[in-house]
Amino acid sequence: MAVCSTAVAVPSSCNLGRAISLEPSKLSASKWLQSTPLRHPPTRSRRLSALPQRRIIPKVAAKKQTFSSFDELLEKSDKPVLVDFYATWCGPCQFMVPILEEVSEKLKDKIQVVKIDTEKYTSIANQYQIEALPTFIIFRDGKPCDRFEGAMPAHALIQRIESVLAVPQ
């Protein structure tokens, strides 16, 4: 094992604001590392660590409605529709679940919130050229009037929706 005596600057993003010096005299463990063979963990623990970690995703009670087509949903809605294009495996999409519930509750008189799973409804995702998740499209009178991507806090989403709805068409 070779140790060099080069000063390494810590990036300013770490907020340490000083350099670290790696000198052989200050590394007391270097001789121990040279003489001690590396031990592998038991095979059993290696297998367990290779398993993917499960995340607990809260179950959300949603009001499911069935329409013969997405276009019918947009045409029959008496309010503008906020469509969340998502996927079950998408982390930011899962982050948005409680936020969309909050937005739906606060703006229930102004807008209808609809979620579309892009893996189940690929034709709709392709029709609206969904390339990033989550993607939100606000429809007014059956036509898209605003589109934005990415997770955001509830207050920012509410502000965005209200600003779009304030613009007359």
Automatic annotation (TrEMBL):
CDD domains: TRX_family. Residues 45-166 form the Thioredoxin domain. This is Thioredoxin Y, chloroplastic. Keywords: Disulfide bond, Electron transport, Redox-active center, Transit peptide, Transport. One of its GO terms (molecular function) is protein-disulfide reductase activity. It comes from the Eukaryota. It comes from Elaeis guineensis var. tenera. InterPro entries: Thioredoxin, Thioredoxin-like_sf, Thioredoxin_CS, Thioredoxin_domain. GO terms for cellular component: cytoplasm. Pfam families: Thioredoxin. The keyword Cell wall biogenesis/degradation does not apply.
